[in-house]
Amino acid sequence: MSQAEALALLPRLRVEPDDLDADRTELLRWAAWAERFSPIVGIEDTLEPATLFLDVTGGASCFGGDEALVRKVCDAFTAEGWSMRVALADTIGAGWALTHAACGLALAWDIPSAKPQAAIIGPREHPRHLAPLPVALLRLGAAVVALLHQLGIDRIEALAALPRAEVAQRFGTEVVRQLDRALGDLPEVVVPYHAQPETVACCAFEFGIDRHDVVARAIDDLLVRLEAILERRGQGARLFECVLRQEDGESPRIECQLSRPMRDARYIGQWLRVRFEQVRLTAPVMGIELRAVSAETLKPTCPDLFDGEAHDQAEALAHLLDQLTTQLGKDAVTTPTFVADPQPEFACRFASALHQADAPAKGMQANRPLRLYARPIAVDVIAVVPDGKPETLRHAGNAQTVIRCIGPERIETGWWRGDDISRDYYIAETADGARWWLFRRLDNGRWFLHGCFE
Amino acid sequence: MGLGNRAIARELADRIRALESASRQADARIIPLGTGGLGPLFAGEGLPSATLIELLAAGPGSGALTLALHLAKHACGERKTLVVADHQRSFYPLALARLGIDVSRVIVLRCPNPRDTLGGLVQALRCPAVGAVVGQFDAIAVPEFRRLQLAAEAHGGIGLFLRPEAARGGTSFAGVRWDVRPLRSGDGCRRLHIDILRERGDGIALRQRDRAAIVEIDDATGAVRLFSAVGHSASAARNVGG
Prior knowledge:
The complex is a heterodimer. By secondary structure, chain A is of the alpha+beta class. Chain A has 12 helices and 17 strands. By secondary structure, chain B is of the alpha/beta class. Chain B is 30% helix and 31% strand. Chain B contains 5 helices and 13 strands. Chain B is globular. Chains A and B meet through α12, β10, β12 and β14 of A and α2, β5, α3, β8 and β9 of B.
């Protein structure tokens, strides 16, 4: 179903853009969580991973056998709100194929108590279960799968029956490799993902501290410790979070967000101190936790031999962004990003300047005003002919003759957006030389001022 | 004030100007505005760096922001960043490409409090990576104005401020002050009448000048150029029948 169809059926539907990075991060988080079932947990190596691999070789007995382990995995994920499919098989390829097989597929063993569909394939039984499955379940590219279909090779058993050398020659070595991996003729191992240990420095006081300067000094010391931890790992972070544990149970939280990953205690400390000065302690502080959130590898920077000025300017700009963000907040320091949306109020967004590298934006050449009112202002307009150009504009109590008018430029949005618009825009120059951007709603003929060419 | 006190005040003022001009000359430079550009509107035939420029405009839709952004574009050149204050939350950057401004080098401060925004502009002007800041403020307190001026002198940045007509009589640390009035457009160009109320002459001292010119903005290309030669304000007004 297309988005337009879905919105037509359910206008209040919330639509979120596909975010592959966020999906991957979330899957990695669950990979770390799943280490309770196996020390080797990995995710599939694709651009859009959606599968967790757990190597449970020799480990099922700790959970009471294969069946008990699968049930525990299903129960644990279901309790966290996930719907899922689980397969236990000799090879990664067989497990992947069985979990991705169509719902109606007859599985070797269903667990009646668990809502998720689960299957356990006994030792050396996987070739039999793979045989009737489509070749697409060998994790092959769409082009190869289409070619195999054209030649009538729809099922894995048909592909497996062909001589490997000819298959490799005709369809590429990747097809043979994936087939052999699924059947267990070629080894494939789970590449384990291990979440980095949390980068945190903390301290606890014997007695509650209520002096701002002493707490600030303790934060500085923690920053030095955190810098040493990050330096050992070759990492930095863009976000530092400081939690103050108070005697009354309250835990005020301050954070410092940076435009690039850093670990320099003095640099981070100056911004964290600005934030700390804005905190009002309601009770003595018993302990402090300082955390580098989402630490990342710090790449060494080297100034260009022939263009040192560019490097210096980039450093100065990053410093300015950190400073402004600390003082004004990240929502106040922005860079414009443009969206291909015909409705003027949605065509431009302001994103935090801290992520400006992710938001390249190109303007448009159409004549647009430099000021756009968040809410169009209703105005009285006199036109000589119905639906014609404005002749007189009455705004803020003043009537102005329109001496020049460019338009109309019709802007319409589709009905599937819910509050669709249909407007005729004009650039109107009044007798005093001022230029306005106004529109007439086509549904009711009312006029609105939407901006000015300041 | 007695005659003696007046003489002392004048002498002190001269000494302060001499001190200020000496500090300015160390980093001052003239930014060329191109052939047919607005260079003749400035004493040095170009945009003076480390300067605050005030554009007094009668009301919205006057074209003063377009003019300010045009000057800011030249101040930023190919590398520096432009910072725009938008506490009114009405700035619409979609039009910047038409003015030839690279949007990826624009930072917009959308802090609702004008005072905090001014503080942000002071920090921005102190940054060597920032070529110009642009903002519209009804009121700027004297200490804030002074901080802006000192910040501009730190690294040669240019501060462009749109002010209402009512600010004409107020204290200002701006080295250049123009009164911008929109005129009737013609030949596919928008025209603005500029009264030069104040200009910094050759980095030495402020001069009060009675000069004016007409600037036109091409509707099709967004190019800004001088329409009339810079002359006495009365003659400029006659050029357009104003």
